[in-house]
Amino acid sequence: MTRSRRPATPLQPLALATLLMLGAAAGAQTAAADEPKSEEKGASLKLDAVVVTGTTGSRSKMLQSVSVSSVNSESIAKSGAASAAEVLRSVPGLRAESSGGEGNANMTVRGAPISAGGSRYLQLQEDGLPVLLIGDVSFATADQFVRADGMVDSIQVVRGGSAGTTATNSPAGIVNFISKTGRQAGGSVALSAGLDHEQARLDFDAGGKISDSLRYQIAGFYRLGEGPRHTNVSTEDGGQLRMNLTHSFKGGYLRFHFKALDDQTPTYLPVPVRLNGNRIEQLPGIDPRTAFFINSNLAQDIVRDRNGNAVTTQPGDGLQIKSSAFGVELQADVGDGFSINSKFRAANNSGRFIGAFPAGSAPTAAANGANRYTGATQVFSMHLFNTSLDDMGNAFSDTRLAKAWDLGGGQKLTGTAGLFWGKQAVAQTWYWNRYNVELKGDGARILDNAGNPSTVPVGHATTTWGGCCVRAIDVDLTSVAPYLALTYDAGPLSIDGSLRRDRQRAAGWQMFDKAPAADGSFTGWDLAGRNNVAYKASNSSYSLGANYRLSGDMAAFARISKGNSYASPDRIIWDGDVAAGRNPYPVNELKQFEAGLKVRDGGFNGFFTFFDAKTNEDGGFEVTTRSYLKDKYHARGIEAEVSYAMGSFSLTAGATWTNAKIKSGANNGKTPRRQADFVYQLTPSYALGDDLEFGASIVGTTKSYAQNDNQVVLPAYFVVNPYLTYNVSAKLQLQLSVNNAFNKLAYTEAEGQGNLEANPLYVARALNGRAAKATLRYSF
Questions:
Q1: What is the pLDDT of residues 680-707, one digit of tens each?
Q2: Which phi-psi region, left, alpha or beta, contains residue 524 (left: φ > 0; alpha: ψ -120 to 50)?
Q3: What burial letters (b/e) apply to 572-602, b meaning 16+ CB within 10 Å?
Q4: 301 and 313 in contact (C-beta within 8 Å)?
Q5: Quick one: which of 182, 92, 255, 280 has its CA closest to 700?
Q6: What residues form DSSP beta bridges with 732?
Q7: What's the whole-model pTM score?
Q8: What's the whole-number average pLDDT of the chain?
Q9: Residues with Cβ within 8 Å of residue 290, at least 6 apart in sequence
């Protein structure tokens, strides 16, 4: 039997060595930044900030015909956010359900439904290239491979607009994590510690000039602890190191990127609750804000790999992610008015997803026969989602050639032709054993069917959900997408249009297990019944927009667009005819109309957008509900983002009102699941002199429905996340931050298990309860 154990992370000695280098690097810094960036004073919305995401030209927000928000590094540091999804919770129009831990978040943009895990209609990028080609891969969402650490200079979020023609599988929007590149000389070292939970983290960053034409940036972190939910095992262990090197020359630059991520964090899944009519209620002893069923009582889980070997895994490892990536970017003027931008990145991604999911038939059900639970202690049936991410690696390239033509009379035409290509591996092995778990949110024991403490499952993975999911898949996706964009400028008017043609090809296989032995044990993979995967798909996207600057401080815009996304093959290839290419691969289509107004007056900035979105979805199979998702949706609403600054006080706020309906099937006319009518964000702050600042991030929502049948209600909530920063000296800062300060019970998702027969439990996932931390930061 082989044993899966986390090797000693290579980041530990590397991080220590890096820290020793920072002092020397600090002495070599120049006081002024290389190529300093302009900053718009006053309100934090910064309508003059240049947008490089989801567009083919670098223009300010005021001149773009898209809805875009940005979050700078200072705001990220103050937020106290524990994950990339938590950072994004304050962006208007972006739904980021940050209740899954460091990864596994559900995200979408206003108008598009959350109809699957991950981000089906939204692409996450690092420095302009996708993290993953597809956003809704089961157990491998894009945010799992992203860490918002000191390398992040800003996050740009484009909603709707031209996102679908500038990137693949992104019709609703793009979230781009943009790195620092050494333009600002200096750096910092920060130590954070949980005040009410066991967690310690070290962050560092440094950057600046090496010579007149060469600059560098380096950043990373390392952490250790148990996270915000109590357990008695170390569930956080790992970190990240990122570097880039930029060589500047006349008319452009050449940049190299490197990333090494080796991280382990807890996975938070729904917990057992009960229903009272259409209301969710807690079960005695299980608090959805803190319940966590992985502890030393479940020290190991034996699974099978794709070769049939037994592998011993540690459930406490939770979400394990390893990623090493190398990239290069070229920006250059190539003569005759042409410029080229070419990006490339290759990444090796792998890991394991382990999480406790309450499901299956009630342990006491008579239908379980000899496998019926007869003990006196209350238990629930848990499927341990133990999925090996054998290979989620990828390679992407995006190259653009652009030229501007002066038409005279203040008129200009800019053309951009581009080609994106990429390859994405989706290789996983699923093996989910079933356990009896004590109905207790902290310190739960594993029990056998007689109610005695145990360490082994009561059901082999071959029997979980009727044996559906002992599964291995290995599919390579290849994507090629040429695109073209034209922008016409005439005084205050700007009109742009873009087209994209996406072509996708897949090759690989899928296999399940053979018939199990009499006791349900694994007897091997069904190699003879292995399904080959070979399909092709293609579609086109378009976008047409216009922006008119009414004055120096006001502009209006409008846009129509159509974009597409493909569901992950792991959700679709259950259908053998589609997998083999005999039937067409389904596509999800999103059509949008947007119109908006941008305005500023003194310390006030405002960005207001009306949207109308129609989604035609063919989303594939959802494991947890055991259903095939295929619906049409229509949503319209208003999105607002404002900021205001007056003296020492500043406020950033956002709100999205949505009227969304399902337009097909048995739930025609009902509201899509987890879609609230009104979602809002407030971030006030106040500075007392130069040394003390306090503020808060407030996120709230009205009620929504757990599922498309509109039966069970997810109650309205608001969560307050305050912070305080104090400058001990010119170079030393102390920060205190609290997530969910009032310990609100905030449900983000819920579902029944009626499809699993005789299970009286409902399951629901909530945001973490109150968690406070302190950070001491030294800057140089």
A1: 999 999 999 999 999 999 999 999 999 9
A2: left
A3: bbbbeebbebeeebbbbbbbbbbbbebbbee
A4: yes
A5: 92
A6: 778
A7: 0.92
A8: 90
A9: 229, 230, 441, 442, 768, 769
